[in-house]
Structures are given as structure tokens and as C-alpha cells.
Design brief:
single chain, 558 residues, mainly beta, 5-stranded mixed sheet, 38 strands
Length: 558
């Protein structure tokens, strides 16, 4: 069946790349073998391994300077900027904008196939009006909403198929800010609420009906293992959000998700104990939601250092034999390396140069020399609770064997305070004041690292923090945007900047690459304001915002 967009294309006799038949259904088998479809970008991280890598190499280090925009889309909302990662399946792009605006587009031309605008809720939590992405599979598009609903839309027409309320957003102070993940016949979604008086969880729903299949509470209740790690009733409002997207290993049949901080964030005297499963990597059976193993990176965390970031799955040589590894960078500035078959700690290394919240992490994973905030006294602590690294995704290249990530060099003064929980409301237990690092100015860097040892291979230092995700390709190019409103290409081997395009607003999303009819494209969402950095960089207080997707390609040969 032809779409209206395709009919118009045919009547106008325009680009031969117009998509005139519906895309094939994205099945579970296709998702499990997404590496075999380099022309597509089927999940938030590109594949279940979350590498944000594509073997496409038409755009390379020799011709990247010829890269030019071929189409752009303004999604119609400025608030919050465009923070999501687009998906592409068989020439159709699916994009989430602020306020849960969803678009299906011809990925070669940008022409709209359909759109769906979620009704604006009356109240929105302080976690924002944006979402980092969506999921596709089984003929459906899945979205999480600002008011904590999960929806399934018909991928061909954009019509609502089912909708479930996960929890009353007005009561829980939570919503869905991360992209769902489709695994087999279930769609899995996390929840925000890690800075609220709220008890976190991870949910799975039947893809066809929307019926909840299981819930894993990230704070164990009475009678459950781990409940003893919470003092008194502190478990009821202990945070433990699951606000970003997990990974999946089909061979091991293990679902990996990372868990955020406990609440109150900075005052831990009323929640004595390790506070499981906050600041942990959890491995679950995707069919039942049962816990297979966990590793807690930061027991009894009091700095707002979420461990909720990506889990990159790699098989690499470790001490003479190939191991199945999980690499998880954290807001603390440290990156943990685990055996993903059993959660064994192997190593931890720092992305940042300025840290004093601990002295070191020993060979068993113990945190040595903790510096914690106190009541009535401001403690100068690095990195800042804004993150030694942001939530934006790093990338791994199997060609170089390196992990690419940003790091932020900034600090803060933390003051803890006792606070009573008010269900669903902000529950920080303290205040933070941003500060530059000792003896210098706040700064940031993009680097290439050995994913196991953390040995840095090269470093690029921009003027302002970097908050965009990274994308690396088979031609050894690395793409990422910056807070100055530029989208950049780097040599992934040397770190040399090779190309730049000014988009006009800061980047804080997920660039991707894909191909249609043999032509490679690079898509760059942009539009976040950098005004939030004005306390350290006053010149950014009037930073513009926008919500525009730019798509680039090489000139077509005649």
C-alpha cells in the first residue's frame, strides 16, 4: 500500500530513493542480529551490545570534508531541545521530539510519512519534557511518556495500538526519560524518580497486548534478599531510578540494566547500609525478570553519582583469555569493567583527571578513602554532581579496539541536610554549588581509551563540556556534537578534527549513521541550550535552544 508521501513523490517524479512500500517488520530475530543490517539503526545503542558503532565506510577520512546537509527537520518544539536517538529500519526513520512528538520519515529525503503528538499532560515532573529515544519491533513503535505511560503505535500508520499507565506520575514524581528496549516478545522500560521520594523498578510488558509481564523492584521489599541493606522504612522512598536504556546478550540470555542513586541524594544517615540495588549493574532473566547477578559499584552512595549509564558488551582478551565483559561508565567519572557472565569485578578506571570523592578503587573493587558531604559543613568534592561524565553514550570500535567517551573536569561544594520524604516530591537531602577544579578552569575532553585498562590513546579538548553521544564508523571516523553548536567528525585513530558543521544550537543527543539505496547518511539531532552552564561560563546564559535534526551525506555522483 502506497503512503500519501510516496504518491506525491511519484507524481512529482523526484528522488528514486522515495520509500513506496512499507518497511519489513522488525522481528526479534532481526533485533538479535542487528549487526548483519549495517544500513539500519534498530536500537538505541545501534545493537544490543550498545557499541554505537556502524561498519558503514562510504564516508571516510578522505572525503568527509565534502559532507553536506541533505535535509533537516524542525520538530516544532524548543523546550528541552532534541535529546533523542533516531532509529532507522529499511529506509524509514523514527524520531522522538520534546513533549513526546513522534515522526516517521523517509530517511533519504526527510519527507513525513506520519506523525503522532502525545497529548500534553497538565503536570510534568522536574525530570523534563523530553525523552532520549524509542524502540521498534513486532510492527510497533514503543514510546515512554512524560506522564509515565508506555505506548505502542502501529509502525506503518502511527495509530495508537495500546497504552498503559505504569504509575500515576502526579503521585510518584517520576516519568520515562529513556528509550525502551524490545527483547523477544517483551518491551522493557525503566523509570526516573532517582531524585524523588520514590521506590524504583524495571518493568517488562507484552509487546502485543501491553499487559505487564514482570516488575523487578530495584529496592528490595520486606522478605526479599537485600532488604536488610536499608535502615528502617527508608526503602520506601529510596530512589534507585532506571532512567536510561539497558543491553542484552542473546547468547547468555541476560538483560543488563544499570541503576541510579539512592535518595535522599546527599544525606545518608537515615538510610544506613549498602542500599541495594542502587548504583548497581543488575543482570536479569528477560522472560521472568528474576535476578541472575548484581554488582554494586558504589555502596551507600551520597554524591548523586548515578551508575545508570550504558553497559557496553565486548568480548576481549583479559589476562590471557577471552572474557565476556561489560563496560559501564558512571557519573562518578569512573568506568567499571565486569565479567558479564557472573558480575565478577575485574577493574575500574577514571575518565576524569580531577576526583577526590575517593582516593582509589582497589583490586577487589572496594572504594578507598571516601570523602562524604556533611551536615553544616560545605565539602569541596570532585567531580561535580553534574557528572564526571554525562548520560550521553560513549562508543566502542571493534576496528581500533578503543572506547570513546567524554569527561568533564568540574567540582562542587556539597552540603548535606536531614530531610523528611514527601512521596513523589524532590528528595535531595542537600545542596550543591558548582566550582572549577583546584588551580584551574572547568574543562572537558573527548578521548579514546583502552576499555579494560583505561589507558588514554588521544585527547581532544574543547572550550566547553561535551554532552553529545559518540558515533564511530567502519572508516575510523568519530562523530559527535558540542555545546558551541557544531557537529564534528574526528579521525578515530589520531583524534584530529577533520570536519565541522555549525547547527546553531548545542548538541545533547545521539547521532547515528545508516544507508538507503547504497548512500550513507549521518543524522545529528541538535537543539539543547547550554544556559545551564552559566554558573561556570557566564557567556552561555543566553545560549539558544532548538529542536532540529540535521541529516548529512556526500554529494551524489553525476
Amino acid at each position: 500500500m502506497f503512503t500519501r508521501a510516496c504518491v506525491r513523490k511519484i507524481l512529482l517524479v523526484t528522488l528514486a530513493t522515495a520509500i513506496c512500500t512499507p518497511a519489513a517488520e522488525v522481528t526479534s530475530e532481526r533485533l538479535e542480529n542487528a549487526e548483519k543490517e549495517p544500513h539500519n539503526w534498530l536500537t538505541y545503542g545501534g545493537t544490543y551490545k550498545a557499541w554505537r558503532y556502524s561498519p558503514l565506510d562510504q564516508i571516510n577520512r578522505g572525503n568527509v570534508r565534502k559532507l553536506a546537509p541533505v535535509w533537516a527537520l524542525q520538530v516544532g518544539e524548543l523546550t528541552g531541545g532534541l535529546q533523542s536517538t533516531p532509529l532507522v529500519a529499511d529506509g524509514v526513520m523514527y524520531l522522538m521530539g520534546p513533549w513526546n512528538r513522534i515522526f516517521a520519515l523517509n530517511a533519504a529525503t526527510g519527507e513525513e510519512i506520519w506523525h503522532y503528538y502525545y497529548p500534553r499532560p497538565k503536570n510534568v515532573t522536574f525530570y523534563g519534557t523530553w525523552n532520549r529515544g524509542l524502540a521498534i519491533g513486532h510492527g510497533l513503535v514503543f514510546i515512554g511518556t512524560m506522564d509515565n505511560h508506555l505506548l505502542a503505535l502501529d509502525a506503518k500508520r502511527g495509530r495508537e495500538v495500546w497504552k498503559v499507565e505504569i504509575e500515576d506520575a502526579d503521585q510518584c514524581g517520576c516519568n520515562i526519560t529513556g528509550a525502551p528496549l524490545v527483547v523477544k516478545d517483551k518491551v522493557i522500560t525503566g523509570v526516573s524518580g532517582g531524585d524523588s521520594a520514590h521506590r524504583g523498578y524495571l518493568d517488562a510488558y507484552d509487546v502485543k497486548t501491553g499487559r505487564r509481564a514482570w516488575r523487578f523492584w530495584t529496592i528490595p521489599g520486606p522478605g526479599e534478599p537485600g532488604h536488610e541493606t536499608w535502615e528502617g522504612d527508608s526503602w520506601r522512598y529510596g530512589g534507585a531510578g532506571t532512567w536510561l536504556t539497558g543491553s542484552y546478550d542473546p547468547e547468555l540470555d541476560l538483560l543488563y540494566w544499570t541503576v541510579g542513586n539512592p535518595t535522599p541524594d546527599m544525606y545518608g544517615d537515615d538510610r544506613e547500609g549498602d542500599n541495594l540495588y542502587t548504583n548497581s549493574v543488575i543482570a536479569l532473566d528477560p522472560d521472568s525478570g528474576k535476578l541472575r547477578w548484581y554488582y554494586q559499584e558504589i555502596p551507600h552512595e551520597v554524591w548523586d553519582f548515578d551508575s545508570a549509564y550504558e553497559s557496553i558488551l565486548v568480548d576481549l582478551d583479559y589476562q590471557g583469555r577471552t572474557r565476556k565483559l561489560l563496560v559501564n561508565p558512571s557519573k562518578s567519572g569512573f568506568t567499571w569493567v565486569l565479567d558479564r557472565t557472573n558480575g565478577e569485578f575485574l577493574n575500574a578506571w577514571s575518565l576524569v583527571e580531577n576526583y577526590n570523592w575517593i582516593e582509589r578503587i582497589d583490586e577487589k573493587g572496594n572504594l578507598i578513602g571516601r570523602l562524604e558531604p556533611e551536615v553544616g559543613t560545605g565539602k569541596f568534592i570532585c567531580p561535580s554532581m553534574a557528572g564526571g561524565r554525562g548520560w550521553n553514550h560513549g562508543a566502542y570500535s571493534p576496528k581500533t579496539g578503543w572506547f570513546y567517551s567524554t569527561g568533564n573536569e568540574w567540582c562542587n561544594i556539597l552540603r548535606a541536610r536531614p530531610e523528611e520524604p514527601r512521596p513523589g516530591e524532590v528528595f535531595m537531602g542537600g545542596e550543591a554549588e558548582m566550582r572549577p577544579p583546584p588551580g584551574g578552569k572547568p574543562s572537558a575532553h573527548l578521548g579514546a581509551y583502552d576499555p579494560i585498562t583505561g589507558k588514554r590513546q588521544w585527547t581532544y579538548r574543547p572550550k566547553y563540556p561535551l554532552a553529545d553521544s559518540q558515533l564511530v564508523t567502519g572508516s575510523n571516523l568519530l562523530f559527535t556534537g558540542d555545546y558551541e553548536g557544531r557537529f564534528n567528525a574526528f579521525d578515530a585513530v589520531t583524534g584530529k578534527k577533520l570536519w565541522s558543521f555549525r547547527t546553531g544550537a548545542a548538541h545533547r543527543a545521539g547521532p547515528i549513521t545508516y544507508a538507503v539505496d547504497g548512500r550513507q547518511y549521518v543524522a545529528a539531532p541538535s537543539g539543547s541550550s547550554a544556559a545551564g552552564l552559566a554558573s561556570l561560563w557566564p557567556e552561555l546564559k543566553d545560549s539558544p535552544a532548538g529542536s532540529t535534526l540535521f541529516v548529512f551525506a556526500l554529494p551524489e555522483s553525476k
